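Worked problem 6 (solution included).
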Amino acid sequence: MKILAVDPGEKRLGLAISDPSGTLARPLGVLKHVSRQADASRIAQVAQENGVELIVVGQSFDENGQPNLAGRRAAHLADALRSLTSLPVVLWDEAFTTQDAQSARLEAGVGRKKRAGHLDDWAAAVLLQSYLDSLENRR
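Solution. The predicted structure is:
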């Protein structure tokens, strides 16, 4: 089952996709944030074009385990996606995805100049891999 992950941010949305077996995640691209509805529409279109069966949206939490402002925005984006598509939409904790994405790019041998750019799609891949690994652990 192919899964699409979204790492929502204030300026950009990182996208990642799994392989058809649902075991490996890879960066897919970055969308510029426009508005919640426009973003949801573009994400739903990407999901349809790539034949995914599930969408995972990264959500952040505060130190008390409650969704922070960005986490509440992610929940609203997930609701907008649910209204546009019949695909299941899951919220998933995005803690440390950016730091892990930096490490992954370094391990992948990405040059210093390219590492200086945005990490949104790599963070989405880290988020998605975390979700996929949790599924594997449940089996």
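Discussion: The domain at 3-138 is CATH 3.30.420.140 (Nucleotidyltransferase; domain 5).
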